[in-house]
Structure formats: C-alpha cells, structure tokens
Design brief:
The structure holds two protein chains of two kinds. Chain A has nine helices and four strands. By secondary structure, chain A is mostly helical. Chain A has two domains: about 70 residues, Arc Repressor Mutant, subunit A (Orthogonal Bundle); about 120 residues. In chain A, the strands form two sheets. Chain A has a two-stranded antiparallel ribbon. Chain A has a two-stranded antiparallel ribbon with strand order 3-4. In chain A, a hairpin with a 2-residue loop joins strand 1 and strand 2. In chain A, helix 2 packs across helix 3, helix 6 packs antiparallel against helix 9 and helix 8 runs antiparallel to helix 9. The longest helix of chain A is centred in the middle third of the chain and has 26 residues. The model of chain A has no long low-confidence stretch (mean pLDDT about 90). Chain B is an alpha/beta fold. In chain B, a hairpin with a 2-residue loop joins strand 11 and strand 12. Chain B folds into four domains: about 210 residues, Dna Ligase, domain 1 (2-Layer Sandwich), CATH 3.30.1490; about 120 residues, D-amino Acid Aminotransferase, Chain A, domain 1 (2-Layer Sandwich); about 120 residues, Glucose Oxidase, domain 1, CATH 3.50.30; about 80 residues, no CATH class. Helices cover about 40% and strands about 20% of the residues of chain B. In chain B, strands 14-21-20-16-17-18-19-15 form an eight-stranded mixed β-sheet. In chain B, strands 1-2-7-5-6 form a five-stranded antiparallel β-sheet. Chain B has a five-stranded antiparallel β-sheet with strand order 10-9-8-11-12. In chain B, helix 5 runs parallel beside helix 6 and helix 19 crosses helix 22. The C terminus of chain B is likely disordered. Chain B is built from 22 helices and 26 strands. The chains are: A mainly alpha, B alpha/beta. Chain B: Keywords: Kinase, Pyruvate, Transferase. Chain B: This is Pyruvate, phosphate dikinase. Chain B: Its EC number is 2.7.9.1. Chain B: It comes from Rhodosalinus halophilus. Chain B: Pfam families: PEP-utilizers, PPDK_N.
C-alpha cells in the first residue's frame, strides 16, 4: 500500500479526523499525511472542514474495492487469519470489560458506574492489565504480517499505564486515544485488511 | 531431614517470617502450629526466588529439594504424585510478602494426567468429575501459566487433543510429565515477579525489587470422594444473632463450588454428627481453637475427605449489627477481649442501624408498598413527596414534612436533602451521591428504585424505610429503640463514655452553650470540612460528626462537648478516633481456590 492510499485508509478508520490523529495510527509523518490529504481534497476525493477531513463517498468505495488487491497477501495467509480469530476472542473480553467499567450491578440492576468506588475501578484496571498481557502475543502475530500495526500495541500500553497511574479516563473515554478508542480503531483496521464484517 | 536451603516444610514446628515464605504459606504454618488439620504443604522460599533473579536460573539443589518436598507430601497423604491408585494433586500459588498486581494466580489440579485421571475416576466412582479435573487443569495452565487466549478445551476431548490445541494456540508445548509441569509453574511464578505490572507497582510504591516471591505447594483434598466426604462453612458463633453456638452448613459428597453454585441445598452442619462424627468433633474443637487464637468470631471453610477433616481457610467473620454488639460484649465478659477492643468491633454505622427508628410491628405487613430500592441510609422518613429541591426547602421551612424524590441527586440538591425527612432516588447504588450524603446527614435514604418509580408519587404522603429499602403509601407508625433500655448497648455505651475523649450529650441533657448545627451550614455534611468549620466553636451537633473523621475533628478543635441522639454512634466514633485499630490479621489458607 503506497503512502497516499495509507493516508486515505487511516482517514477511513478515523471517519472524521485530523492529520495528527491519522499520522498517529498509520505511523506516517504528519507532513506526509497533510500533503496527501490536501492533494486529495484538491481532487475532490476528500472533504475538509476546519482541521478535520472526511472521505468523499466515491473515494470510500474505491478505497474499499482496492483492499482485495492491497491486502491480497494477508487475506490469503492462514496464520494471519488464525491470529485474527484469536483477536476476536480477546475482543469479546475487552467489550465485556468495558461494559463492566461503564456500568455496575447494584441490587441486581445494571446502573452507570459513577466511579465513586475506587476498589471496583482498580479491580477492573487490574483485569485490563491481565487482558493486555494475553492480547500482546496475538498483536505480535498480527504485526508479523502488517508491521505498521505495532503503533497500536504501543498506544494500548500507553493508555493502560496512564489508567494504572490513576488517570481513569484512559480506559474508555471516546474523545482521547484511550484503551478502548485505540482498540476500536485497531479492530476497524483489521476488519478492512481482512475484508471481514464487524460482529456485534 | 536433609539440610534445606531453598524450601521449607510447613509442618507447624516453626513459624518462619512472612518475608521468607509469603502470606499464604505463613497462614498454613500458623494453623499447623495451632495443631489444626490443614492439607500438608511446603514452600519454595523467597530466598530461592532472589537467587533465581540474580542468577537467571534455578539455584543449585532447588530441583532436588522440590522432589524431596513432593516425596514428603506423598508420605503425609499416603498418595502418589503422577501415579495411581491414589493420585496426589497439588495447588501451586505465589506468595509475595506484600500482595501486588500481576503476580501469577493459583494453579489447581497439578498432578492430573491420563493415568491419574483414570485412577481418580476409579477412586471417586465418578469418571465425569475426574475428566473435568483434567480439563480444568488445561484451562488454568493455558490461562495462567501460558497467558494464552482462544484455547478451548471441550469436555468431549482428551489430553492429547487438549495438548494439541494448547500447542497451536500458545506456540508452546505443555511439558509431558506432572513433575515437569510443576517445575514450569514454579518457574512461571518466579518470572511473574518481573512482569510489567509487578515492576511498575513496586516502583510506584517504593517496594524493593529484590524481595522475591515464595511459591506454596499444597496437597489438594476432595469433598466428593465418597459418602464420608463433603464440604462446608462454619461460623464459630451465629453471625446473625451473635449467639455463642457454632452455625454452619455442610454438603455431603460435594466440592466447594457446589455449595457456592446454589445448585444443591446444604444441610445444617449438625448433620455431620450422623455421617462423619469424628470430623464433626474435630471441627467443633478447631472452631474453639481458631476463635481463641484470633480473639474474634471465625468464618471457616472446610472439607471432609474420607472422614478426615481439613481446614481450608479461616478469617474474621462478617456479622450483622445485632451480632456485632452481642459478640463484642459477650467476649469481654468471657475475658477473651478487653473493652477497648470491643469498641473497635462495633462500628458507629452498625449502632446507628440498630438504633434507627423503625416501623411498629405489623405496620409494614398491612401497608401498601409503592416501590423498593437499595437501603442506603437507615431510619424512617414520613412526609409528602416533592421532586424539586427548592420546593422541598420552601415547604419544609413552612413546617411541612417532605420526602425528596429525584432521579439522582447532585451537589445542587444539598439544600433539599437537608430539608427532607428522607431521600429517595430512581438511579444509583449504595455509593451514589444521594446515598453517601444521606448517610453523612443521618437522613433515611433509599436509592435505585427504578426509572419512573419515585418521582411519579409527587404530592403523595409516603413512609420511607431506609433500613429495608421499602417505600409505603401513607403515614405509618414508627418508634425509635432506646439505647439505654437494652443491656448490651448500655454496656457498650458505658465503655464508650470512658474511652471517648469528649463528652456526648443528648439534646435534652446538654449544658447551656452555643451549639453549632453542622446540618444547617454549607459543607457541614462532609466530615472533611469539619476541621475548618469547627474552628472556634464551643459545641456542635450534626450527622457528619458520627464518623471517626468527624469526631477526630471535634476532638482536635477542642470542643467542650457534642450533641446528638442517639449518643452511642458518636461515642463509638470518638472512642475509635482516639485509639489505634487492632491489626485484623486473618489466618487464611485455601487449598481449593
């Protein structure tokens, strides 16, 4: 995948993002992302509002249709697909953990977690640390086939350690590159690479 | 016995330091030292781990010592590790002197393999259980030792297919023999000391990196061997009433998880007298011993294997408020504890719950229950339901009794909560704003009644029971227990008066003075503000005082006295604020995880 396509791919994952955010998940330098997205904007393939870009519908379709060629090798690779199946297993556990983080059971009812119970929160962050240790080998197996995915692993660890240090918004806050945000974008990237559908 | 450098046998002959053997092994050693029946165990000491960390490999002689330790366990149990006809299974657990995240969890069923599964099936007469013991071992080994995801071990599989799955999913082969698996697990415990989380935790908390962790290896016992086997829980006194009579449950021919699962109904522990009389007598004796040694009511988990009793864990029991009062006062009369200790065994909250106004007998049964939620702050509140805090304040100022009903409360509702006889909410649990603030104010509170529940009753007169979490239509008759009428409470009050550094008066009996009402000033519901608010005051009253933090502030501010009714919660808080807490060391071992 060339730099230009990768910049558009990063934008497709972000849906609505700025050059810095796309640079962070694709591993491209920010100037490179800006250069390609500005050119794409000139050509009408990308819409720009303020600092944020969005793919034009036709560009989104042509990006999608190019994936089978761009990722032909990965899609045909049994190890990559097996690693992805294990990613899905961890994904289920991450989703359950985030639900437990956002809600708590009180008297048999699920209610929003107001984060006033520090022990409850600490136990979940501890569980997240354990889950991350189990996810690491799976991420390594995926990275063996798509080296640029390593940036996600680094960002996940960074978010985890911030949460461990007490900044609990790094567990799931959607406005920052929290553990859940990074995980979600990695999942989106993998779905596009392997041409799979999100199972909800 | 050969000279042991890296391992210790927990035979009760000595009580080694926790820093050498870890907390779990220390508890086992302590119980053995008390002469109690605990499944035999030995421990690989932190010294061995430290040597491993320095050298990057096992210290010379460690493997031989572990083999010798296993032989000792075989001898003590009359069973064989890795072989039939009576196979020995062990648990392997880490035990750092200080507990920290990221240390390896417990591995159970170590020693199971194709040969021992068959032997165990024969011995138990239950092939399905033996197969599940085997399957669960693979589960634990994959999850805990290899940190592997996505490996599933279906019950219809066998060891060969499970091992293949494990190899495929983790990239590592499971060692062939039980001995090699045991060694690999001990290795994994050592390595978990240097895991990312453990390292960060130590750095964050200033814990030295070279303490190392111990590894306890303990024989497992099974409560489902035969009709003379079973499992149960015993309290050394009744945890509901406080009566000095052991209270417990027993399930014959079952494992611990069967009791917890709720699939079977346990029998009263007295049924053991019929089926396993020797184990019953030993259990009663152990209950006495543990209570005496620990000076508190014990909650004991045990298993009976082929008629022989084994204690798995014992810790200070959780107890109901009435039991807490009765047990604390009786133990003083028995000479087991001092009055000072008794005062630390009953919390101000427990006494507040006991002395909270309650509905007169028969009232609740005859009433119409409107809704129910979680009981968040005890007491009875009767009044008109109001859904707005400004309105609650206005109507209360005009002399009306109001109940504040909100979806949730926030700091903006404080004036309404102060004015209300009770607070009820639709969302939130026992740690929500409404619950926390109501408890601080001493106002009855029920939370989490469900969306659309309480606010729908605006304008209606209701009775809120904060002790049971129920809300009734109409005004029901309530009464407040008298703290001086009940002998145990009066006794506790006597001791608390002697121990509390400042006097506590009821409003009727208070001397003439300027009494600061904390419930009437901003921030007065939060004990953290009291040092500032109490500055220069002569005397004070208010819900926030009935906590250790609150009374500590009153003592530090040099108040002449505090005012409140009932007085006992304040006196207890004052007594507790004035004394250091006893170290609630629990004697806890667990053989079954």
């Amino acid at each position: 995948m060339n730099e230009q396509t990768l910049a558009l791919h990063g934008l497709a994952i972000k849906k609505h993002g700025d050059a810095a955010g796309i640079a962070q998940i694709t591993g491209l330098p920010e100037e490179t992302v800006t250069k390609h997205l500005e050119a794409a904007a000139q050509a009408g393939r990308v819409n720009k509002a303020g600092e944020k870009y969005m793919l034009a519908p036709t560009a989104a379709i042509s990006l999608q249709s190019g994936y089978s060629r761009d990722f032909a090798e990965q899609r045909a690779n049994a190890e990559m697909n097996a690693a992805y199946d294990d990613f899905e297993t961890v994904n289920d556990q991450v989703k359950q953990l985030i639900t437990d983080w956002q809600t708590m059971e009180v008297g048999g009812e699920r209610l929003p977690n107001d984060h006033s119970d520090k022990e409850y929160d600490a136990a979940i962050i501890d569980r997240l640390g354990d889950l991350h240790e189990k996810a690491e080998p799976v991420l390594d197996r995926l990275t063996a086939h798509v080296p640029r995915l390593k940036v996600y692993k680094d960002m996940l660890l960074e978010a985890l350690e911030r949460a461990e240090d007490g900044a609990i918004e790094w567990v799931s806050d959607a406005r920052i590159m929290s553990y859940h945000t990074v995980w979600f974008e990695l999942h989106e990237d993998l779905l596009r690479i392997l041409g799979r559908e999100r199972v909800e | 016995m050969p000279d042991l450098r890296w391992t210790l046998r927990l035979d009760g002959s000595a009580l080694p330091d926790k820093s050498l053997i870890g907390g779990k092994a220390w508890s086992i050693a302590r119980m053995r030292a008390l002469g109690l029946p605990v499944p035999p165990a030995f421990v690989v000491t932190t010294r061995a781990c430290v040597e491993f960390l320095a050298k990057g490999d096992w210290p010379d002689g460690l493997a031989e010592e572990i083999d010798a330790g296993m032989a000792w366990l075989e001898e003590a149990t009359g069973r064989r590790f890795g072989h039939g006809p009576q196979p020995l299974l062990v648990s392997v657990r880490s035990g750092a002197p200080i507990s920290m995240p990221g240390m390896m969890d417990t591995i159970l069923n170590m020693g199971i393999c194709a040969e021992t599964e068959e032997a165990l099936a024969e011995e138990m007469g239950d092939a399905g259980f033996a197969h599940d013991v085997h399957r669960r071992f693979y589960d634990l080994y994959a999850d805990i030792v290899l940190k592997c995801v996505g490996a599933e071990f279906p019950p219809e599989g066998d060891a060969e297919s499970w091992a293949a799955t494990l190899k495929e999913k983790s990239g590592q082969a499971i060692p062939e023999t039980p001995r090699d698996r045991l060694f690999a697990s001990i290795d994994a415990v050592f390595n978990s000391w240097n895991g990312r989380r453990a390292k960060r935790y130590r750095k964050h908390h200033g814990i030295p990196d070279d303490l190392g962790t111990a590894v306890a290896v303990q024989a497992m016992v099974f409560g489902n061997m035969d009709a003379q086997s079973g499992t149960g829980v015993l309290f050394s006194r009744n945890p509901i009433t406080g009566a000095r009579k052991p209270y417990g449950e027993y399930l014959a021919c079952a494992q611990g998880e069967d009791v917890v699962s709720g699939k079977f109904t346990p029998q009263p522990v007295e049924t053991m007298r019929e089926t396993v009389p020797a184990a019953f007598d030993a259990l009663m004796a152990a209950s006495e011993t543990l209570e005496e040694a620990n000076g508190d009511v014990q909650d004991i988990e045990f298993t009976v294997q082929k008629g022989a009793l084994f204690l798995l864990q014992s810790r200070a029991a959780k107890r109901a408020p009435a039991a807490a009062v009765r047990i604390a006062t009786e133990m003083v009369r028995e000479g087991v504890i001092t009055p000072q200790v008794a005062l630390t065994r009953v919390t101000p909250d427990q006494v507040r719950l006991l002395l909270a106004p309650r509905l007169k007998p028969g009232e609740a049964e005859a009433a119409d229950e409107l809704c129910r939620g979680e009981a968040a702050s005890p007491g009875i509140g009767i009044g008109t339901v109001v859904t707005d805090s400004d309105e609650a304040e206005r109507r209360a100022a005009a002399g009306e009794n109001v109940i504040l009903a909100r979806v949730t409360t926030s700091p903006e509702d404080l004036h309404g909560m102060l004015a209300a006889k009770a607070v009820i909410t639709e969302k939130g649990g026992s740690t929500s704003h409404a619950a926390v603030v109501s408890r601080a104010l001493g106002v009855a509170c029920v939370v989490g009644c469900g969306v659309g529940s309480v606010t729908a009753h605006a304008g209606q007169t209701v009775t809120v029971d904060g002790s049971t979490g129920r809300i009734y239509a109409g005004a029901l008759a309530a009464e407040a227990p008298d703290e001086d009428a009940e002998a145990d409470l009066a006794q506790l009050k006597d001791w608390a008066q002697a121990a509390c550094p400042i006097p506590v008066h009821t409003p009727e009996a208070a001397p003439q003075a300027q009494v600061l009402d904390l419930n009437a000033i901003e921030g007065g519901e939060d004990a953290a503000n009291l040092p500032r608010l109490l500055e220069g005051a002569e005397a004070a009253t208010g819900g926030a005082l009935a906590t250790e933090e609150g009374m500590a502030a009153a003592i530090a501010a040099g108040l002449k006295f505090v005012v409140g009714k009932p007085a006992l919660p304040l006196l207890l808080a004052g007594a507790r604020a004035g004394t250091a807490h006893e170290d609630r060391e629990t004697v806890a071992v667990s053989a079954q995880g």
